[in-house]
Amino acid sequence: MSERDKVRLVRTACPAHCGIDCCGILAHVKGDRVIKVEPGDFPDPRDRRICLRGLSSLEITYHPDRLKYPMKRVGERGEGKFERISWDEAFDIIATKFREIAGKYGWRAIGWVLGGPGAGTTKFGAYLRLASLTQSTRVSAWGYGDAGLPCGSRVLFGTHLPFTFFLPYLIPPSVPDLVVVWGSNPAESQPLFMMRKIMDAKEKGAQLVVIDPRYTVTASKADEYLGIKPGTDPALALGLMHVIFKKGFQDDDFIQRYTVGPFLVRTDNGKFLRGKDLGWKEAENYIIWDTILNSPQISGATEVKSALKGAYTVNGIECKPSFQLLKELAEQYPPEKASEITGISAELIEKLAERMGSVETIAFVTHMGLARTHHGDISARALGTVAAVTGNVNTTFGSGHLPAVLNWQPFLHTIPEKPSYHRLGILQLYDAVIKGKPWPIKAVWFAFINFVNQCANSGKIINEVFPNLELIVTADMFMTPTARYADILLPACSFLEFSDFLPHPYPYVQLQQKVIEPLYESKSDVDIATGVAKRLGFAEYFKGGEEGFIDLIMQHPSLGGITREKLKEQGAMNLPFMPDTGQKFDIQLPTPSGKIEIYAEQLVEFGQVLPVYLPPLEAPVKPGREKYHLAFVQGHSRFRTHSMFANVPSLLEMNPEPVVEINPIDAKKRNISDNDIVTVFNDRARTTLRARVTEGVRPGVINITEGWWLEQFGEGSVNHLTHDVINPVHEFVYEPNMSMNDVAVEVEKQEEAEK
Q: Considering just the CA atoms, what is the radius of gyration of the chain in Å?
């Protein structure tokens, strides 16, 4: 047998799932072609797994429609007319245009619009490094539906994401008594990492409750399903707490030790009472009411019993513990009122609250979908507050695998003594381009993001954002809806054609090892960024290519000596493990108080110090009072990761076209039958597709799974219907979030629409 006929095996990893599952891949290579992929091994054989998307990797890599060489636009933007050019010409055009724009507007007029780092590390870092060196603008993609949860988590826990505080209850050997999946569908969006743990817990006796507007695949596995109206989650949380507090199910000891519940709040201004208000030398210290001494004391003083309830007057200042204020808010939401708002029966609300109060441990599972409403940050805080008052927030660490921390600094701030890049949220990009506020953006570079397809208010992007840009560069594998608007189009590699470092899934890290050489004239994102960097005078910062960047980002003690070479030899490796010594250490929360902030003093001016219920911006809650009577949500599909895989033939055989799911009650009112062609519309757009009549969505709600490309609809698209309204609280806390699940629409049968 010749060397070319031999099959070699290469262990790599699939980054195509935002880092959530990140399956190991064992690629079978014959000659210079991958002929088969199968699950790669992990230290724990139970984690050897793969999904439909991973299995379709070869269809992506060898897809006939791949972009094969650099091109420049010769038609109008959006026409998709391009001519072939060389890489040298492409880099020269980009560098020349960048300098021209920077000369007129400054370097910050150039924006780098990148997909999330979960899709890789060094491919993301390469562009950030170039943005840092040029002092241009990084356009953060968290606001693409994923900033609401961080906004809530930053207020409540002081951390970007809340998972550290919820997930340990699901990690073996822990087995919770109750799993509450709230606003998430891990059976389709996190099938291999999260859903397996949920099903393992169920097998060992845990009860599963699912809260969602859709009867999802996850809900089909539940012991109890609560079908909620979109955007009403805080009302449900307050209804649950009403019952919990009324029946004394709250964990007072936990609230006193780990939350700001005992801290006194001034009733005149809503701020925490501090030592300076009393003329004490401990000026910034928080004040509690000691029930033993019946007097105010500094928080944290020894042998103090803090009051959680009541009203007190301290030096003439009227105060209440913040927990008392939370309790008073919850008193306004008896199950009957919460039911009226959420659409969940009062009996189910009371039943869930009682179950929460009677079990030892609860694992709360949520993700980004919960917070994709205008007030999604409050939904996240409300869920976290329920977890906190029942003592189901993990606040200690005793043993286990340490989290991976990466050496991002050389990418985020490449030259420490000089300024780095400017930063905009992705929703803020719209006004930066259209109005020049807060500063003008005149050029954008899109990489691993299908911007026009996936971001809010697609019509506005096409008609107002793109016409005001002097240069659009897109690096992609395919002629996506966004690529059609590019001035310069660059062919990027598939994940089998370049190397990267993947710190997922916990507790592992993996090497995404290059399996074959890049096909056609495609390049990795690191090599593309390097080509531009050389022409801008920054070649010295891009030496070593992908492997050099991998070595650089891995230079952190948290990895405990794990190296690229070791990963190449061993495959996935466990993160360093801290053995159980019998000791538990409190996790230091980076909130202003160092506690779980169930009362957020920083939001006094916004009237949102507590997880208040505010009606959705658009999604109708009370039928008949709005112009558009249906709430539109976008679920995820097992057949796609956002808009990736929307053009894969084998997946299209199983899921051939977009459909709108509508409840039989709503369909009957509109004379709509299953498989009818319908139009979903509002003041922004009209979107035409086939109807699927199903009880899988609650009355008053429709669902279209996100990720379908524009051309796969009769007209319009998913995000032609969505809005780009900015929530000022999000802007204040972190960055604005797109409210994909807070949209009002109407649906009509196409023959009716044509009349």
A: 27
| Residue keyed to tokens 């690529």 | 483
Rounded to 5°, angle at Cα 78 from 74 and 81: 30
Tell me the residue length of the chain. 755
317 exposed, middle or buried (CB, 10 Å; 0-12, 13-18, 19+)? middle
Asked whether 122 and 513 are in contact (CB, 8 A), the reply is: no
The answer to whether residue 624 scores a pLDDT higher than 80 is no
Would you tell me how many other CB atoms lie within 10 Å of the CB of residue 158?
17
- Taking alpha carbons only, the member of 511, 591, 580 closest to residue 549 is 511
Taking the model in full, what pTM does it have? 0.96
Q: How far is CA 617 from the centre of its chain?
A: 20
Backbone angles phi and psi of 174, in degrees to 5: -65, 140
Bond before 64 cis per omega within 30 degrees: no
Phi-psi region of 279 (alpha: psi -120 to 50; beta: other; left: phi over 0): left
Give me 567's structure tokens: 């990963």
Q: Can you list the pairs that 311-315 forms with residues at least 24 positions away whose Cβ atoms lie under 8 Å?
A: 311/267, 312/264, 314/264, 314/273, 314/278, 314/287, 314/289, 315/277, 315/278, 315/279
Task: Fill in the amino acid letter for 562.
Answer: I
Q: ∠ at Cα 724 (723, 727), nearest 5°?
A: 115
Residue 370, phi then psi, degrees to nearest 5: -55, -35
Q: Judging by beta carbons within 10 Å of its beta carbon (0-12, 13-18, 19+), is residue 16 exposed, middle or buried?
A: buried
Contacts of 133 (CB under 8 A, 6+ apart): 414, 415, 533, 536, 538, 541
What does the alpha-carbon distance between residue 170 and residue 36 come to, in Å, rounded to a whole number?
34
Amino acid residing at 345: S
**Using the 8-state DSSP alphabet, how is residue 145 labeled?**
T
Please state, in angstroms and rounded to a whole number, the distance separating the CA atoms of residues 696 and 699.
9
Q: Are strands 71-73 and 33-39 parallel, antiparallel or unpaired?
A: unpaired
Largest interatomic CA distance in the chain: 93
Phi and psi of 221, rounded to 5°?
-95, 0
In this structure, what DSSP letter does residue 754 have?
T
Record the tokens describing residue 50, joined without a space: 């793969």
CA atoms of 729 and 614, how far apart (whole Å): 13
Lowest mean pLDDT among 69-78, 109-118, 227-236: 109-118
To 5 degrees, how large is the angle CA 119–CA 466–CA 495?
A: 20
402-451 residue pLDDT tens: 989 999 999 999 999 999 999 999 999 999 999 999 999 999 999 999 99
* DSSP reduced 3-state for 531: helix
pLDDT at 303: 76
Backbone angles phi, psi at 437, to 5 degrees: -120, 135
Consecutive H or E run containing 136: none
Helix (H, G, I), strand (E, B) or coil at 747: strand
Going by the DSSP 8-state scheme, the letter that residue 565 receives in this structure is H
Strand order in the sheet with 207-212: 224-227, 207-212, 178-182, 362-365
Q: What is the DSSP string of 631-677?
A: EEE----TT-BTTBTTT-HHHHHHS-S-EEEE-HHHHHHTT--TT-E
**Cα–Cα distance measured from residue 141 to residue 287, given in angstroms and rounded to the nearest whole number:** 40
Closest residue by Cα to residue 37 from 392, 513, 489: 513
Q: How far apart are the first and last CA of the chain?
A: 70
- Report the alpha-carbon distance of residue 463 to residue 460 in Å, rounded: 5
